[in-house]
Design a protein that fits this description.
By secondary structure, the protein is α/β, with parallel strands linked by helices. It contains 14 helices and 13 strands. The model has no long low-confidence stretch (mean pLDDT 96).
Length: 450
């Protein structure tokens, strides 16, 4: 493996640089200042669902240590910071007036970022649905769309005088497929294709929120989805059909409505979505950017006869993988392929792309006594930034690249067992120690501007 630190890296001219986190993964303080209960509180408190039995406490404890995070961002030199707002800090039960202490936390965070010369770029929803709303059906219920619009109004009124760029909803595919279809993530439902109404309600919530934000002066608003480049395991007709279906469910089902105002043909799945008059116009209102989270390619084979779904994911042949296992293959070219294919598929309906997350977890110690040498992460980031540059060279407009993650954090169902951060976090003491990848990214950002 070539030393990425010494590589001459192609970097698109004028690209913005960012780093990302999410509220539940870094804030800790689950019971502080009137915070309510989310579906992730329910998930982590259910024995056996989180790999290492952790509960996100204290973790980075950013609710109390956000000043340290701002200092790291300022030193890193990023243009923007992607963070998320915890819905249950603002509305503990998902309705009613905002809790002053919760709103004030994000108010201080925004001011601190601006004072440090870092533009705040918040995400309204990064998976922490209020438990009270899940009890009423969650994203299966159209009422949740109305509740999300109300929450958006509160945050737009609180921060909209200073925040001009917003993500609405993060990775609706993960909520629908992993959260409601197969139960790997909160809320832990096992509905298979009966989960798909959650797709429509999340996309409608995005459209409603985008309209509210723009009415209150937002300059750019967009959704961000976890996309992947899908390939069949073999050239057999069965594998190619399975890969097509998976690509439709993982990629097209979420991108098509936002970018074209129409869903792909779901007839092969026997699914009908709960679309009402006017919904598709709301969902398909043009956005200022389209967010793409990308981690790995996906290789699909036909499922055995009688399986509940017609496809199965298998390891991508001939590639290394990250600490998440053999299904998380490292293939930077797949990012180029996805971006160039999206540009061909959607043409001028594809707005400027923002890479909203890209990063990798590798095995690392829980405690360190100095900067951690993490060459595998540096190589992963370098090669994927190069893949973005290749896509740009082929005519794709990409305006921003975001590393996941600024900090080692609570990695959902894997708890504290996976580390994605540029900064090592001791999850017992919350101590932060920048890794070699932090210094590498800082140098890259500085050199890209020289």
């Amino acid at each position: 493996m070539a030393d990425a630190a010494d590589r001459i890296l192609p970097v698109p001219t004028g690209i913005r640089w960012s780093a990302a986190t999410a509220a539940f993964q870094i804030e800790g303080a689950r019971r502080a200042d009137g915070r309510g209960r989310s579906i992730w509180d329910d998930f982590v408190d259910t024995t056996g669902l989180v790999r290492d039995g952790s509960t996100a406490e204290p973790g980075p404890d950013s609710y109390h240590r956000s000043g340290e995070d701002i200092g790291l961002l300022q030193s890193l030199g990023v243009d923007r910071y992607r963070f998320s707002i915890s819905w249950v800090r603002v509305q503990p039960d998902g309705h009613g007036a905002g809790v002053p202490a919760g709103v004030a936390y994000y108010d201080r965070l925004v001011d601190g970022l601006l004072d440090a010369g870092v533009e705040p770029f918040p995400t309204l929803y990064h998976w922490d649905l209020p438990s009270a709303l899940e009890a009423g059906g969650g994203w299966l219920s159209r009422d949740t769309v109305d509740r999300f619009a109300e929450y958006t109004e509160i945050m737009a009124d609180a921060l909209g005088d200073r925040v001009k760029s917003w993500y609405t909803i993060n990775e609706p595919v993960s909520t629908s497929l992993q959260g409601y279809a197969v139960g790997e993530l909160a809320p832990g439902r096992h509905l298979l294709f009966d989960s798909l109404p959650t797709v429509h309600h999340q996309l409608l919530a995005h459209g409603r929120a985008a309209g509210i934000l723009r009415e209150r002066g937002a300059a750019e608003v967009g959704i961000v989805n976890n996309h992947t480049w899908v390939q069949p395991a073999t050239d057999s007709e069965a594998d190619q059909t399975a890969a097509h279906l998976y690509d439709m469910i993982h990629n097209q089902l979420f991108a098509d409505p936002v970018l074209t105002g129409a869903y792909p043909d779901l007839t092969p799945l026997g699914v009908e979505l709960p679309v009402q008059d006017g919904d598709m116009e709301i969902i398909g209102t043009p956005s200022e950017f389209y967010g793409v989270n990308f981690y790995n390619p996906t290789t699909i084979a036909a499922a055995p006869e009688g399986a509940p779904v017609p496809f199965v994911q298998v390891p991508t042949p001939g590639v290394a993988h990250t600490g998440f296992g053999e299904l998380w293959g490292i293939a930077p070219r797949a990012l180029t392929e996805f971006l160039t294919d999206a540009a061909r598929r959607y043409g001028d309906r594809l707005p400027p792309v923002i890479i909203g997350e890209n990063g990798a977890s590798f095995p690392e110690p829980d405690e360190v006594d100095g900067p951690l040498h993490d060459p595998l992460r540096i190589d992963y980031l370098a090669s994927h930034i190069g893949a973005v540059a290749d896509a740009v060279a082929h005519g794709v407009r990409v305006d921003e690249y975001t590393v996941w993650s600024l900090l080692d954090n609570f990695e959902w169902a894997d708890g504290f067992s996976q580390r994605f951060g540029l900064v090592h976090v001791d999850h017992e003491t919350s101590a932060r120690t920048p890794k070699a990848s932090y210094e590498w990214y800082r140098t890259l950002i500085a050199e890209s501007r020289s």
